[in-house]
Write a structure and sequence with these properties.
The complex is a heterodimer. By secondary structure, chain A is α+β, with helices and mostly antiparallel strands. Chain A has helices at 16-30, 38-55, 70-74, 231-234, 244-248, 252-259, 263-268, 272-284, 288-298, 305-321, 325-338, 342-358, 362-370, and strands at residues 83-86, 92-95, 100-106, 110-123, 131-136, 139-143, 147-153, 156-163, 165-169, 177-181, 185-188, 219-220. In chain A, 38% of the residues lie in helices and 19% in strands. In chain A, strands 1, 2, 3, 4, 5, 6, 7, 8, 9, 10, 11 and 12 form a 12-stranded mixed β-sheet that branches. The chains are: A alpha+beta, B mainly alpha.
Chain lengths: 372, 198
């Protein structure tokens, strides 16, 4: 038989992030104890059916069209591509690349999403039962039925409305509250002494904007693109730019581009926590060797047991991914010895068994398998 | 274009994993969470990759993989051949892919757009692939999109994933003769519409 077509499609292979993301979701839903509640559900089935027939398909917490809780569908690590979550009430949320958002409230009458960074494009089905609110820093956008987008980066927020009307409120909004109608936009730009703000450009206008010219006016409402400096533009020669903020928000590619070839320079004066973060930045740039080197460096640093454990765990994962099974097993054993956080203990043990198995040491794999 | 992984992992788990899988399944049935984690670590990458190629959507593939493993762990006691976890979980994944094909068809009839297709053959092709190869992959994808779900899945398991016919039959829960018929029908359509591009 000829070579499987799969080998010509390397981009379809699952990434570490995808494997981890699905595992978290399996755990979240897998731990639900359905059967103990079956009797109660059966007893209330008639009541539920009655209200379901009266009230429509998606009362109560909002779920996706595939039945996934909205929280699980919207949360998770930032990914490099845009993704759309179709909801059961025909509302739709599109997360832009590298967007981090969290569902704070999901109830029969209200949905609240907190936008940490990136862009959310939201279509709220009109005449629905829920009031939607998006909170981006100190700016809050509220709607009942409309289509709009909210973009947030360090310090700045932009709201654009395609259909309907939204209400924008917050301490930085003139008068505390304003309404934005279809075709309009609202831009909140922090004062000049705020830390290097940079709004993500709209997808169709990816060029960075020129520096702000009116720092004394912290809030503008306009239909023009925000005039902000990017962190790259504000970086002083010789000094390291603020790579931590994007890295902590999961935007490793942004952090990598800010650092350029100064990864090692950043690591030279960094704390253990920052070195672990830098290792993630290196790994996301495809530099697995630099990532492992940085993680190994943590072992020689003054660090907490948890930081040592985390560094060894990540190093073990990466070694395993590139086929260094024995080294991976040893690193993972170290991680367990330092004391992994409770949420990581099971996966740490699973990984160490897999690593010893791949290293061909069945005895060690069995030893870990049979440990109480 | 999505970032592609440098390394392509083996299509199937190595033979010695069967014995290990049996032990892990036993421990997982007894309630050991770490054993489920180990089973997941061993099979997740293959399952997610297969679903991504079948569904042409990373979001749908992750949803389907999630449901696959939840069902697999829920029904683990029903697995008679403990060492056959890999094939069993593949079968569940194939069933989940079928469910999503049916949903897409229904949504299409209702005029509702389903999830974004961000992992078509052309989108996930090797970065070094030339324009001719991309055009060929795009053509194959288009023909596959027009096939019935049964023909498409059977053809993909055989020609994209590289499984033996008997394995395809097991995963799709039908006879060898049916699998052969479905693959032949898909081959004929692909050959006709691509002019034998493959």
């Amino acid at each position: 038989m000829s070579k499987p077509l799969r080998e010509r499609l390397p981009g379809s292979e699952a990434s570490d992030a995808a494997v981890e993301r699905v595992w978290q979701r399996v755990n979240e839903r897998g731990e639900r104890r359905v059967w103990p509640y079956a009797a109660a559900l059966a007893a209330s089935a008639a009541v539920v059916a009655f209200f379901a027939l009266r009230a429509g398909p998606c009362d109560g917490p909002l779920c996706t069209q595939s039945g996934l809780p909205m929280q699980a569908a919207l949360s998770g690590d930032a990914v490099d591509h845009e993704r759309t979550v179709e909801l059961a009430d025909r509302s739709r949320v599109t997360l832009g690349p590298r967007t981090v958002a969290r569902v704070a409230t999901n109830a029969a009458t209200a949905v609240d999403i907190e936008l940490s960074t990136g862009t959310l494009a939201v279509h709220v089905e009109p005449k629905g039962p829920r009031r939607w609110g998006i909170t981006a820093g100190d700016v809050r956008v509220e709607v009942v039925g409309t289509t709009f987008s909210v973009a947030r980066a360090e310090g700045g927020v932009r709201v654009e409305v395609s259909e309907g009307t939204v209400q924008v409120s917050g301490p930085s909004v003139p008068g505390g509250v304003t309404r934005v109608t279809a075709g309009g936009s609202f831009t909140n730009v922090p004062a000049a002494d705020s830390p290097t703000p940079s709004l993500p450009p709209k997808p169709e206008t990816p060029r960075p904007s020129p520096p702000a010219t009116s720092p004394s006016s912290p809030v503008r409402s306009s239909t023009t693109k925000p005039k902000l400096e990017s962190p790259e533009q504000t970086a002083v020669a010789g000094e390291l730019p603020d790579w931590r903020t994007p890295a902590r928000q999961g935007r490793f590619a942004d952090a990598a581009s800010l650092l350029g070839d100064r990864l090692e320079a950043a690591a030279a004066s960094a704390t253990a926590a920052d070195v672990i973060l830098l290792a993630d930045v290196a790994a996301s740039s495809g530099d697995a060797v630099a990532s492992e080197r940085l993680l190994a460096k943590v072992a020689a640093m003054q660090a907490s047991a948890e930081e040592h454990a985390l560094a060894e765990y990540k190093r073990g994962q990466r070694l395993l991914a590139r086929g260094e099974a024995k080294l991976a097993a040893e690193a993972l054993e170290q991680a367990i010895a330092f004391g992994l956080p409770p949420a990581m203990k099971d996966s740490g043990r699973a990984l160490v068994i897999e690593a010893w198995r791949r290293a061909g040491d069945a005895a060690k794999a069995d030893e870990w398998r049979t440990r109480p | 274009m999505r970032t592609h992984m440098a390394e392509v992992s083996p299509i199937r788990p190595a033979a010695d994993t069967h014995a290990d899988d049996a032990v892990l399944v036993e421990r997982a049935v007894e309630g050991a969470a770490w054993a489920k984690g180990a089973l997941y670590q061993r099979h997740a990458r293959r399952v997610i990759g297969m679903l991504t190629r079948m569904l042409s959507s990373t979001a749908d593939a992750e949803d389907a993989a999630q449901d696959t493993f939840i069902l697999a762990f829920r029904d683990l006691r029903q697995l008679q051949r403990r060492g056959g976890f890999g094939a069993w979980v593949n079968g569940i994944a194939v069933h989940q892919a079928h469910r999503r094909f049916r949903r897409r068809k229904l949504l299409g009839i209702l005029g509702i757009q389903s999830s974004a297709r961000d992992a078509t053959f052309e989108q996930v092709a090797d970065a070094r692939a030339g324009p001719e190869e991309r055009a060929e992959l795009s053509l194959i994808q288009r023909v596959l999109d027009g096939l019935s779900a049964n023909e498409r899945v059977a053809w993909m398991l055989r020609n994209v994933e590289g499984y033996e016919l008997s394995e395809v039959a097991e995963m799709t829960a039908c006879s060898l003769a049916t699998v052969k018929r479905r693959i032949a029908a898909a081959e004929e359509r692909i050959a006709r519409e691509t002019g034998g591009a493959r």
